[in-house]
């Protein structure tokens, strides 16, 4: 049922004319004991899925904000094993799908088969591995399939058309359309060709297409969602949680709704 939970979450949102909103949070930033409450908050605020980052010592795809969150979590001794154990403790208390974002090294150190089983036990529905290319997917695909864990592929701006088609064909859950050439982090603007790129991905992908990297304002949410199925927001969410600015998160999530939002009082 893990993959099905992702499909159902998207269907519920898209069928009512809204766009999907996937917040990224760093597991263990602020302590693992706060994880359940943060996931519950995001669920109640209308998030579609929660992308949960695993702190890692060499996060090549992450910008400064997420790197700093990872360092804070690592200093508290947070590990992949501890994260999965914590997720398992409150899986019955959440309905929102959890997608884990981790680099390949922690999975390899854990043991691929044991990791996949632990994900299923913890109620993880999907996985994003940014440093795993198509050519090396055989390292994990069999075990993920056996445990009903979706492998979500990332499509970059610089990938050639044939590779984008293959990524779109193989992806499970959704296709993560990377909106910048670089690491995560807030951006003021995006390149002019991005909308055309998102629209072309929609044309070749049967799964939902979400835009992520650099999305940081309600305007970005609406702008980028126009030609795809929603957005992933990371650095802005991580910052807002760290600063306890939760109203900002609610405003971002509300921007994915098709309904006109009442102005803040």
UniProtKB/TrEMBL annotation:
GO cellular component: cytosol
Amino-acid biosynthesis listed as a keyword: yes
Presence of the UniProt keyword Magnesium in the record: no
EC top class, as a word: lyase
Pathway, per record: Amino-acid biosynthesis; L-tryptophan biosynthesis; L-tryptophan from chorismate: step 5/5
Swiss-Prot/TrEMBL catalytic activity: (1S,2R)-1-C-(indol-3-yl)glycerol 3-phosphate + L-serine = D-glyceraldehyde 3-phosphate + L-tryptophan + H2O
GO-annotated molecular function: tryptophan synthase activity
Active site per database record: 51 (proton acceptor), 62 (proton acceptor)
CDD domains reported in the protein's UniProt record: Tryptophan_synthase_alpha (cd04724)
E.C. designation(s): 4.2.1.20
Keywords assigned by UniProt, alphabetized: Amino-acid biosynthesis, Aromatic amino acid biosynthesis, Lyase, Tryptophan biosynthesis
Pfam family, one: Trp_syntA
Transmembrane segments: none
InterPro entries: Aldolase_TIM, RibuloseP-bd_barrel, Trp_synthase_alpha_AS, Trp_synthase_suA
Quaternary structure (record): Tetramer of two alpha and two beta chains.
Alphabetical list of PANTHER family matching this protein: TRYPTOPHAN SYNTHASE ALPHA CHAIN, CHLOROPLASTIC, TRYPTOPHAN SYNTHASE, ALPHA CHAIN
HAMAP family with a match to the protein in the record: Trp_synth_alpha
Family listed: Belongs to the TrpA family.
Protein name: Tryptophan synthase alpha chain
Organism per entry: Sediminibacillus halophilus
């Amino acid at each position: 049922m893990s993959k099905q939970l992702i499909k159902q979450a998207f269907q519920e949102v898209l069928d009512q004319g809204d766009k999907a909103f996937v917040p990224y949070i760093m597991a263990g930033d602020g302590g693992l004991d706060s994880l359940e409450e943060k996931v519950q908050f995001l669920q109640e605020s209308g998030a579609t899925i929660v992308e949960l980052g695993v702190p890692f010592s060499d996060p090549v795809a992450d910008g400064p904000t997420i790197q700093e969150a990872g360092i804070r979590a690592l200093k508290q001794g947070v590990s992949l094993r501890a994260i999965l154990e914590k997720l398992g403790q409150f899986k019955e208390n959440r309905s929102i799908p959890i997608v884990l974002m981790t680099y390949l090294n922690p999975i390899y150190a854990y043991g691929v088969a044991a990791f996949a089983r632990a994900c299923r036990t913890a109620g993880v529905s999907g996985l994003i591995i940014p440093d795993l290319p198509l050519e090396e997917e055989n390292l994990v695909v069999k075990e993920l399939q056996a445990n009903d864990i979706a492998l979500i592929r990332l499509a970059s701006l610089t990938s050639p058309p044939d590779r984008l088609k293959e990524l779109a064909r193989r992806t499970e859950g959704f296709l993560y359309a990377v909106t910048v050439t670089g690491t995560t982090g807030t951006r003021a603007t995006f390149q002019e060709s991005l909308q055309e790129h998102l629209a072309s991905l929609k044309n070749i992908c049967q799964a939902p297409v979400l835009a992520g990297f650099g999305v940081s304002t309600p305007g970005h949410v609406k702008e980028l969602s126009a030609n795809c199925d929603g957005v992933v927001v990371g650095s802005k969410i991580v910052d807002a949680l760290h600063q306890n600015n939760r109203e900002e998160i609610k405003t971002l999530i509300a921007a994915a709704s098709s309904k006109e939002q009442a102005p803040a009082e």
